[in-house]
């Protein structure tokens, strides 16, 4: 199979991974702050009122992140073009995609942990000013996790690109071929 034929397959894979990450991520944040969804996300994503529950939160997560698979998948694909063998190219692409979502999750969870110890009713982030929400503390904690998860995705992309570049270099030298 040519590398060009792999492009749509790998981009669909990246979109599925990104969307699944979003659905799982939003289960965590729904646990922390249902109000984040009821006061904001369900309206933002026009979720049917009968789905204002965990299923609706998963739909929000999917809709908020599946497209990130395109933004992350294309640079990984381009970096992987320099890997010699197609099977190694695919293997490294999958590893890199998992590295991106793992990094995003870890940074998001670290931000959530920090939010739990630093955000209370007397210490809300400035972006919360004037927001009429039912549970400002929980809302701010979930919002912090969401914001830092995007940063985590960017950091993960940089790490994954570095991994792809290293794999490409190794694949050019038969003595260092990845197995």
From TrEMBL:
Keywords: Membrane, Transmembrane, Transmembrane helix
Positions of transmembrane segments: 64-84, 96-119, 148-168
Organism encoding this protein: Terricaulis silvestris
Superkingdom as given in the UniProt entry: Bacteria
Protein name: Uncharacterized protein
Species lineage: Bacteria, Pseudomonadati, Pseudomonadota, Alphaproteobacteria, Caulobacterales
